[in-house]
Amino acid sequence: MRNxxxxxxxxxxxWALLAVSAGLLVHALxxxxxxxxxxxxxxxxxxxxxxxxxxxxxYQITLTVVILSVGRLADMFGKKRIFIAGLLCFALTSLLxxxxxxxxxxxxxxxxxxxxxxxITVLSMAIVTEIFPDTEKGRGxxxxxxxxxxxxxxxxxxxxYLIGLYGWRIGFFVLVPFGLFAVLLALRYIxxxxxxxxxxxxxxxxxxxxGATMCALSLAxxxxxxxxxxxxxxLALFAISATALVAFFFAERRVSHxxxxxSLFHNRxxxxxxxxxxxxxxxxxxxxxxxxxxxxxxLELSIFQVGVVMALVxxxxxxxxxxxxHLADRFGAHRVTLIGLFCLIASFLVASTAAxxxxxxxxxxxMLPMGVGIGLFMSPNSAVIMGAAPRxxxxxxxxMISLTRMLGQTTGIALLGTVFASNVARYAGIPxxxxxxxxxxxxxxxxxxFILVAVLVGAxxxxxxxxxxxxxxxxxx
Length: 477
Known about the structure:
The structure is a single chain. The protein has 477 residues and is mainly α. The protein is built from 17 helices and no strands. The longest helix is centred in the C-terminal third of the chain and has 35 residues, at 394-428.
């Protein structure tokens, strides 16, 4: 039974879905536009490769921490109220991002923008689940997922076209009216979903320790590129990260509502596939983050051409994901997950042949196999995790999937970005920033990056073949 105001007219659920979809669309557009625009931001804000990484990292780290609290806050104060607050936060901070006077203001405003994005990400699906009857729930969730895919597909090309004409600020300005439109729809059509658990408490200590771990690690990995990893401050950051991580493990075992419930990891099958999700996210995010830099600085493509390539890869992933779900239902999610990992390894090796003379079409053809691997891996792997979790803890397992992916993405951007910058300098023969490096050095470093992630994902595949998941869990998949 839904915990809602009895006066709500659920015949208007499609209008409520429109409000939720508007929020999801603006979030997906933001992510895809910024990713494609990073090289342009580097040039127009007159910054370097190390610093520009924080336009993504500040967003990812904040998202990782805040997303953990959103669900519980919504249960305490009401989904509609928190959702509208998140939309307003996102619209306002998008405006602040557009008005940033330098890269440091942009990094700070991106962190604030991420808080609004966390609310949209978490509560959109929760609201759809609550306002639709069981007979139409799948349809509503499918439409919402389709909106996200549409945003990821349209965002790079739209952003590339607009930024090419009007400069980088338009990529943030365009989000403001979308966000405000979503607020108006939410105020008018989302029903008053009443709080369900006002007595719950949030694990602020766990969230703070996790945030400190990721922030200190990311700072050490990025700014170690400039001052050297043996520098006293960098070593201190590594020490802070390790200490915060250990403290996080101890703290989570002593609270009633932990950020991360470690007891779930007693299930070997669940543990294996959570680890696979993190490693795959680390590898794919590490190379997709670098794709625009290679295309713009080595292939010398325009930002619009960069956006088109990234849009087509996103479209491919969105098209393959439903087929992967069908294959998982027929042949078993674990088997399809392994096939997806194998395809990822093969695609990384194919992509490692990209060079500065590949051209837009040649590069796109090398990237398309990666979309197949990602599409085949993601949803079946999530299905294994959800299938291995106890029924009464499915919500916690779902949150764990999101958390694992974000941790993998954040680590992948920071760690593999560091390796890439080091290899660019090595192949150039002199200390040089990525934005000023010869095309040949960028190309060689990019090729090495794909070989590195192929080894990383290959190790994950071998581990999954060697491990013996619980037989009981295997029977459920």
